[in-house]
Amino acid sequence: MYDTLLQDTIAVLPIVIVGVTSLIMVVVDSFWNDSKAIPVLAGVGLVGALLWECFHFDQTGQAFFGQLIHGGFASYINIVILLTAFFSFVLTAPYLERIRHHFGEVYSLLMLATAGMMTMANANSLLTVFVGLETMSISLYVLTGLVREDIGSIEAAMKYFLLGAFATGFFVYGVALIYGATHTLSFGLMAEGLHQYRLLLLFWAGVGLILVGFLFKVSAAPFHMWAPDAYQGAPTTISGFMATGSKAAAFAALILLLWRALAFETLPWSEVLALVAALTMIVGNFLALVQRNAKRLLAYSSIAHAGYVLVGLAAGNPDGYSGALYYLLAYSLMTLGAFGVLAYLEWDGKVGREQTLDSLKGIGMRYPLLGVAMAFFMFSLLGFPPLAGFFAKYRVFLAAIRADMVWLAILGVLTSIVSAGYYLKILWLMWMVPPEEALEKQEVQLPLGVRTALVVLALGLLVIGIWAPRVFDVTDGFFQISQAAFLM
Length: 488
Known about the structure:
Elements lengths: L1 H10 L1 H19 L5 H19 L5 E3 L4 E3 L2 H26 L5 H18 L4 H19 L6 H32 L7 H8 L2 H18 L8 H8 L2 H26 L7 H21 L4 H22 L2 H26 L19 H4 L1 H15 L5 H15 L3 H27 L4 H4 L7 H19 L1 H9 L6 H4 L2
Antiparallel strand pairs: 1-2
Helix pairs in contact: 2-3, 2-5, 3-4, 4-5, 4-11, 4-14, 4-20, 5-6, 5-11, 6-7, 6-11, 7-9, 7-10, 10-11, 10-13, 11-13, 11-14, 12-13, 12-18, 13-14, 13-17, 13-18, 14-16, 14-17, 14-20, 14-21, 16-18, 16-20, 17-18, 17-20
């Protein structure tokens, strides 16, 4: 028994490393009040977990009585989450010092949220999904309201908490109904349970409620209302972490549910996801067009990209799931980078939630690094080749066409064209419009770590865009015919 426990712990060691590091950080912060030590400790933990995943990518299997998977799919999504967390820490540490909220517990909460994301993304059971979901969500609720003296931040945290708790209620009720219909919470055993007890109505009612919970977490319309307020009110770099890591984890868990638990049935869950994807793309892109606040614009952009990922899931085929995984990697890099640029364009006395598009005027000429980096992020979000955003959209739209959802692919292309109206507007303001007189006297201080992170994120979009076929070869391998091959 103890040997099995040790083997299972080693199999999911990256989650353990991140979780234990968060606890060590609390103790270190209590006895050694060093503002530099805590972020460094977090970085060491994240790099250690990332290296472990890279060297154990092909060692696939299950752990803790089938509650978690490791290797292959799990390693890939963990790498995405860990990269997001690492760059978030690099961008967050000097930002929090600047806004005078450099508290050790903030980094511990970020690490706990990361551990929750990895647990949810590696789940092989609805029970494990719930544990990871709540670990992530509670940490993010607190981080959203970090700037307690700002009424907007408190309001955003309260909205996020109340709506999140409401969505969790849907999710838990759905889990109860599925357990009643199948007598199991394991993804791999649901088909057998449903065939044995034949409680189809109860089962699909549970699936519907669970989908509501997932769609809330990925901010898909019509469950997106919390996202603009939460992203606007939270500290800007933390908004980037929320918009990327939590989406990657929630989508990964949803892919596991759809592929392993629901692939055996023919009821129209795919059509439901297609309608949600269409609505999300329309709402996200058209509402982003009318935004005047920079962070709210990126929030609606994030909603639109959730719709694009849902296109791949709605296709319900290996191409769609593989494309969605690639999309999550590209989306995480470009969205985190965009929020990172905004974070360091917040002028003194101007908190992030008040940052207007006008504050971006002339930035490209005055600060070429920020301007060029933002150009990479905006063009990739738009879907401009050879950046990763283009190949991500191409793959999910192609999957929709192969699934006879041509209308959904056409709608995706049309809404992508609409998105040019606000992505190119940002670049036009940064490069073509002179700054206002009040902004000309402001200076942006970019630490070396921040400059390096933005350059790496921008170049990363180019690299994974050029190497897109190789990444597709990896993600395609996760979705072979047999369930065993899925864990590769």
